[in-house]
Structure formats: structure tokens, C-alpha cells
Amino acid sequence: QVQLVESGGGLVQAGGSLRLSCTASGRTASIYGMGWFRQAPAKEREFVASINWSTGTTYYADSAKGRLIISRDNAKNTLYLQMNSLKPEDMAVYYCAAHRSGSPWYADEPKGYDYWGQGTQVTVSS
Q1: Confidence of residue 102 (pLDDT cuts 50, 70, 90)
Q2: What distance separates the 2 farthest-apart alpha carbons in the chain?
Q3: What are the C-alpha distances in Å from 108 to residues 39, 51, 99?
Q4: 55 and 35 in contact (C-beta within 8 Å)?
Q5: Cα separation of the two ends of the chain
Q6: pLDDT in tens, 35-70
Q7: Are β-strands 68-73 and 78-83 bridged in parallel, bridged antiparallel, or unpaired?
Q8: How far apart are CA 76 and CA 117, in angstroms?
Q9: DSSP 109
């Protein structure tokens, strides 16, 4: 089992920045890929970005390209999401997720992930 704990959410004005963190514990050696998803009220969970845990190769949703940056620190077992130039439409609960090698590392659907964090709220004021 892998446990994931997110942090770093909060209230920010439009145009501002936030950095989300997600720390993994447990059987972290089994992690093949990790990703960020977000879910706004009354909407489905949406893919944001994913990363190959070993190589650091990244993959982004079109809505994230150029503003949101996924990265990881293997030594700290921590995943990050740097969020810049935030817009009101970025407001959502952000979830980190991890999966074993049964899914492609760039998995962009929730069903491709085995473990989930509890989520952290990002609120963007206009």
C-alpha cells in the first residue's frame, strides 16, 4: 500500500501562484507513475498532469500546459504541482494519485491509478 498526503492548497487571487505538494509513504518502491487531478463542484474529476516517477518525464493536459508544472523529488518521495497565472476556472479540489506498473506512466484517467490522496482545496478569487 501507498499513502498519499497533499498540502499547499489555499486561497489566491487570479494571476497568483501556489505550489501543491504530495508526500508518499509506504511501499513507495512500487510507484511507476504519479499524477495530479482536479475536481470542481458538479464536475467530473479531470486530469491535470502526470510524471514518470523514475525518469521524471512529464505529460500535461492541454489546459495545464504553460502554467502548471509537475515535478518530483524522489529522495523526499514528494510530488509537486507549481501553479502559475491562476484563473478562476482552476478552482477545484486537487488530488494526487499514484499507480504501479499496470498502467502506462502517463495515465490520464482516474481508473489508471491505484492510490489517491485526500485532496486539497484551491480557491481562486477574481
Answers
A1: confident
A2: 41
A3: 14, 10, 11
A4: no
A5: 40
A6: 999 999 999 999 999 999 999 999 999 999 999 999
A7: antiparallel
A8: 17
A9: S
